[in-house]
Write a structure and sequence with these properties.
Length: about 900
């Protein structure tokens, strides 16, 4: 299937504050590169960052709901995804804190108010279709709850002729029993024979002459409860393979939520993580298996559970395929149909347990991902691949989960640097994790979510959020233009993954596919200068022709329909490359390479789309093609500067470089077909090959520093509402001051500066330069910490952590990422000038003082341990302030 070009117009069909019923993304004529350039410099609402807005309890008030939404708007955010989770407080009537039961009239009235206010403010509202995750609640009865197959084994003597019928756990149902010769370690699963379990009395056993093993199989509950549930939302996770369970959830939760929000208020309903652990059964699985696969599963249960991988591979593939089909048909399809009837989109993180296939994303409107490691196969890449294959212009991702743990530790540079890796994975809509609702009685910095950055105004560096959000918005909007250019299709070995499925083990199809592909295939594709999409058996036939190479990563089992697609593809001139091994069967023309040789083979088949010298794996790219331009987004994910020569497959006489941080553009000049590019640590840029002449500023001429003034002394320090004004020299960290050690907030550094007359010479540009950041090593991780799961920018910046610069009372701009400099040419005048730098740190210093975190002891006693705040023990104040000596620099 050839992807149809889309544009800003098409993306606006996704709407941030939909005026009518939500619709699936629709194709539209591609904008010209000139129009895209104007939109990049002055971005519209398209591409704005959304945040997951956690309501704790739920204990919320109209005043605080309104205040927090207004601050979202002021911060340049585009809207929110409402997620209702565990309580953070007991009821405190004197402070206006009261946990209203989830789905109660009082709670739904707050949803109604938030929806109406979001429309007034022009904020997009998405809605998590339930509390916590996975879907479930108090209305999920035992017959609708997530189920598993449980086995019990025991050895019996040869003389035993009957067994007392076992008493199952509450809710368990005996499905089958088997007897086989031998003891537990030696029993052959193929030798087990089913025994009659009918009736109510003892179970009769056949005669035997040696030790024997009896197996009992029970249809049992997984026992899993909804994670992070709000008050009143407690209950079992539903059975995703049972339509009646899904319909009960939609009726009891979905209908009430959408009715409260009102018509046209909600853009998309959201299904968070598929984390239904041990969910490997449903009440009619035996009947469905027989109907779909043509044979009876019951007598084969011992082989399914206990047999060797080779002997049971076919059986387990059929078992896995059946579960994936039931999930599609009985969960995805009914939720999607329900969403359509209600005029909202259905967005889902379509991976995990139950075993969702890549192709199953067609049963939703928006595939959502997570995970930032662009050189690995992450859920973000899974989601973007599905959306590319299905011709959908937008890929969303849960972004900044665990970012620089603990909560409140993340900096603007952390935010930007992780976001770039999502962009490199094909994401173009960031949904920040997130914004914790926090009322005034919670104090400062307020309530955190247990596993996330805090992207709200409770963070001291909030004043630079509009600039940070605008830079991310520019990239998001740009990456929706035209169509993705991907040379390589990486085949997902779904059949091999199913072949490992059996009761009692993880059925996470995505993770098993990642494990089977291995850690070296994705880097080999990227290092060869190509982009890739993951494809599977359900998507390959329609999509194969758009790729130049299909890679089979150690695949053993290929179904016959896929084999025929691959044969037709090669006859039409496509290349199929097998890595490590050939699939089973006859493949006489299949190209087989080792993992070490994969990159070279890909480069021999098709010229690299982008080649970098010297090889720099930490620089990635995304290529989008418009009707009149080729656009490349490049991001440097490393913590040291890099100078590289880059050759692109695209070519044109007019080249431009667009800066996401500022929205400015300038011309580029290639030399012998290559571009010389300098990347700051965690720097990114957009390179545009235009068919027209363009209107960007001319290419940058060689720059010579013609003078500088060191600004070491003469500064005064002011803390708002604090200890007055004092003189300081730079570098300076206020955390070394006993009176300010635990201060989190804004501190003002101020002095006068008189630039030399030469700084006013024609053609001279003047910058306030704070110096470079310095690479740091990863933080040592003590045992038990979760910080190892989080992203952190490994750079010690000259400003901790962000700043706004003012010259003569006028705002110049913010500084929070390399290069740590701002241009002040137009704001300086002869003589003395007032220079003010307002610096913001994080809330960690205040938290290190102690006494500012919520005391969860009484909450846990009342409601149970629903979550645990992470990595907040042993905090120490962080350096804060201007940690370098800035210079006023003149350049010609």
């Amino acid at each position: 299937m050839r992807l149809r070009p889309v544009s800003i117009v098409a993306c606006l069909a996704l709407g941030f504050a939909a005026a009518g019923r939500a619709q699936e993304p629709a194709p539209a004529a591609t904008l010209s590169i000139a129009a895209v350039a104007r939109a990049f410099a002055h971005p519209s609402d398209e591409g704005r960052v959304l945040v997951r807005w956690w309501w704790f309890g739920p204990s919320v008030s109209r005043d605080e709901i309104d205040a927090e939404m207004r601050r979202m708007k002021e911060g340049g955010l585009g809207g929110f995804e409402l997620a209702v989770v565990y309580p953070m407080t007991l009821d405190v009537p004197a402070s206006g804190l009261r946990n209203e039961a989830y789905l109660s009239p009082e709670f739904l009235d707050q949803v109604r108010f938030a929806a109406a206010r979001a429309r007034e403010l022009g904020l997009r509202m998405d809605l998590t279709l339930g509390s916590g995750w996975s879907f479930g609640g108090p209305y999920i009865t035992s017959d609708l709850a997530s189920a598993r197959l449980r086995s019990d084994r025991r050895e019996i003597a040869p003389t035993v002729a009957t067994l007392t019928r076992p008493v199952p756990f509450e809710g368990d149902r005996l499905v089958a029993a088997f007897i086989g010769p031998g003891s537990l370690p030696e029993a052959d699963p193929a030798a087990f024979r089913e025994i009659d379990i009918g009736g109510d009395g003892p179970i009769r056993l056949p005669a035997g002459e040696g030790p024997r093993v009896v197996l009992f199989y029970y249809a049992s509950h997984s026992g899993q409860l909804v994670k992070r549930a709000a008050v009143g939302a407690e209950g079992y996770v539903l059975d995703h393979y049972q339509r009646a369970a899904v319909e009960a959830h939609l009726r009891e939760a979905g209908e009430k939520l959408l009715e409260a929000a009102g018509p046209s208020a909600v853009h998309a309903v959201f299904c968070d993580s598929l984390e239904a652990y041990d969910a490997d059964w449903t009440s009619d699985l035996l009947a469905e298996f027989h109907s779909r696969r043509g044979y009876d599963l019951r007598p084969l249960l011992p082989r399914l559970e206990l047999d060797t991988a080779d002997r049971a591979a076919g059986l387990r593939r059929d078992y896995g395929r059946t579960l994936s089909e039931l999930f599609d048909e009985r969960f995805l399809v009914p939720v999607h149909e329900w969403a359509r009837r209600h005029g909202v989109l259905f967005r889902i993180q379509d991976y995990g347990e139950p075993p969702a296939t890549l192709a199953s994303a067609r049963e939703a409107d928006l595939a959502d991902g997570e995970g930032w490691k662009f050189r690995e196969l992450t859920p973000s890449r899974w989601a973007s691949s599905a959306n590319h294959l299905l011709g959908r212009p937008v890929t969303t991702s849960e972004t900044w989960t665990w970012l620089h743990s603990p909560a409140f530790r993340a900096t603007p540079l952390d935010v930007k640097a992780e976001a770039d890796q999502h962009f490199l994975s094909g994401v173009n809509q960031l949904i920040g994790h997130g914004w914790p609702y926090s009322p005034p009685p919670a104090g400062t910095p307020g309530w955190p979510f247990y596993a996330a950055a805090v992207l709200s105004d409770k963070n001291p560096w909030w004043p630079v959020m509009p600039d940070l959000a605008a830079s991310l918005q520019r990239v998001s909007a740009m990456l929706r233009q035209g169509e993705p250019v991907t040379d390589v299709a990486l085949y997902a070995p779904t059949e091999d993954a199913w072949a490992s499925f059996r009761p009692g083990v993880s059925l996470n199809l995505f993770r098993k596919i990642v494990e089977l592909i291995g850690p070296t295939v994705v880097p080999a594709i990227l290092d060869s200068g190509h982009a890739f999409d993951l494809v599977d058996d359900g998507t390959l036939a329609a999509a194969a022709r758009r790729y130049k190479v299909i890679v089979l990563p150690g695949v053993r089992f290929v179904p016959e329909p896929t084999r025929r697609v691959l044969e037709e593809y090669t006859r039409a001139g496509g290349a199929v490359v097998a890595v490590r091994r050939r699939p089973e069967g006859d493949w006489p023309a299949l190209d087989l390479v080792s993992e070490a040789d994969l990159g070279a083979r890909l480069s021999a088949v098709i010229a690299p789309d982008m080649a970098i010298a010297p090889a720099t794996p930490e620089i990635g790219f995304v290529h989008r093609r418009l009707a009149d331009a080729d656009v490349y987004f490049l991001a440097h994910t490393g913590n040291a500067p890099r100078h590289v020569q880059v050759r692109f497959r695209a070519a044109s006489a007019s080249l431009e470089e667009w800066d996401p941080l500022t929205g400015r553009s300038r011309g580029l000049v290639s030399r012998d077909g290559a571009l010389d590019l300098d990347f700051e640590p965690y720097g990114s840029r957009i390179v545009v090959f235009r068919r027209d002449a363009g209107t960007a500023a001319p290419p940058r001429a060689p720059v010579v520093e013609s003078g500088s003034v060191e600004l070491r002394s003469g500064w005064t320090l002011t803390v708002p509402g604090g200890t007055g004004t004092r003189a300081v020299d730079l570098p300076h960290s206020w955390s070394e001051d006993a009176l300010l050690r635990y201060f989190s907030g804004a501190v003002s550094y101020r002095r006068t500066v008189s630039p030399p007359p030469s700084f006013a010479a024609k053609g001279t540009r003047v910058f306030l330069d704070f110096g470079e950041g310095h690479p740091t090593a990863p933080e040592p991780l003590p045992g038990g910490t979760l910080r190892g799961n989080s992203f952190a920018a490994l750079l010690a910046p000259p400003i901790r952590e962000a700043a706004t610069v003012f010259v003569n009372g006028r705002r110049v701009g913010s500084v929070w990422a390399p290069p740590y400099r701002v241009e002040v040419t137009d704001l300086l005048h002869p003589g003395a000038n007032d220079l003010r730098v307002e610096v913001y740190n994080t809330a960690i210093n205040r938290l290190a003082e102690g006494g500012h975190l919520p005391d969860m002891t009484a909450v846990v006693e009342r409601y149970g341990q629903r979550a645990r705040l992470q990595d907040l023990d042993g905090l120490r104040p962080l350096p804060s302030g201007l940690l370098s000596v800035p210079r006023l620099v003149a350049e010609e």
